[in-house]
Amino acid sequence: MAEIVEKYNTKCPGVKRLMREAIELAEATEEYCARPLEDNLFEWHFTVQGPKGTEFEGGIYHGRILLPKEYPMHPPHIILLTPNGRFEINKKICLSISGHHPETWQPSWSIRTALLALIAFMPTPAEGTIGSLDYTPAERKILAKKSTNWSCSQCGEIKLLLSSTAAKPLTEEEQSVLNQIAFKGEDDQSSKPPPPTEEETPEPELQVLESTEPVTGFLDQLTEILVALLVGAIGIFIYRRWNAFYAEAETQL
Fold it and tell me: Which residues does the UniProt record annotate as the domain UBC core (predicted)?
């Protein structure tokens, strides 16, 4: 931390904020830990425990957090490094608390908020979002067991990074964020209609064409009227021409 203090302008709001968060997260917990790299305050490595009661339980997952210079006004990018079956590795993942969604990010949120949200997001449906995977529960359980032997080239064995210390209680804002994530997961599940069974498979509706007889009858009547008018007009024209011819003949006589 001393090297970081010398390297960065401690009067910068983003630097001050990250230094404060580094102090708050200095002690690892049983759920998560995170710390900046020794030479880069804007890149952190983190480790999280898989959420209990899910196919990720018992797994330990490691990743990177890339923070923009505008942090905390702009959100961080999150990258998973440990194979997990929910998120692609070495790729910026799409979450409502990550750089893919700056419109939903709140400056009051922190790296701890992002870690808690990541843990909460793991059991939710992938829904084809950027950086998501849709492995089966069995495949994810296998990866969870393998993850405990994973090592980071900079941090070492990740199973040694977490501690037995319980995480501090959630703040009201953090609980609100996690509730939104849980609601989103339930909403995504309920928005998918269940596939119809053989008994429930709807039969195709037959399209019944309405009769065109009334329209056809009307057109026939209209045609007859027009023909009658045309014949009458021709008769009047011939009658007038005949009268004119007869009058001219009498004049000559």
Answer: 13-165
Alpha carbon of residue 68 to chain centroid: 22
> Which DSSP symbol is given to 194?
P
Cα dihedral across residues 240, 245, 251, 253: positive or negative: negative
Asked if 145 contacts 55 with a C-beta cutoff of 8 angstroms, the reply is no
Structure-token match 């793991």, residue found: 122
pLDDT tens, 158-197?
999 999 888 888 888 788 877 776 554 444 444 455 555 5
Q: Is the dihedral of CA 46, 49, 50, 53 positive or negative?
A: negative
Q: Which CATH number fits domain 2-190: 3.10.110.10, 3.20.20.140, 3.40.50.2000, 3.90.79.10?
A: 3.10.110.10
Candidates 119, 108, 120, 31; CA nearest to 73 is 108
pLDDT tens-digit profile of 199-212?
A: 555 555 545 444 44
Give the number of C-alpha atoms closer than 13 A to the C-alpha of residue 154, restricted to the C-beta side: 16
Indicate if 94 belongs to the active site. yes
| Alpha carbon separation from 77 to 22, 59, 131, 213, 232 (Å, rounded) | 17, 22, 12, 68, 87
Which of the following is catalytic: 12, 33, 94, 152? 94
Give SS3 for 250. Answer: helix
* C-alpha count within 13 angstroms, C-beta hemisphere, residue 15: 11
* Predicted structure pTM score: 0.70
Are 56 and 146 contacting, i.e. CB atoms less than 8 angstroms apart?
no
- 133-148 per-position pLDDT tens digit: 999 999 999 999 999 9
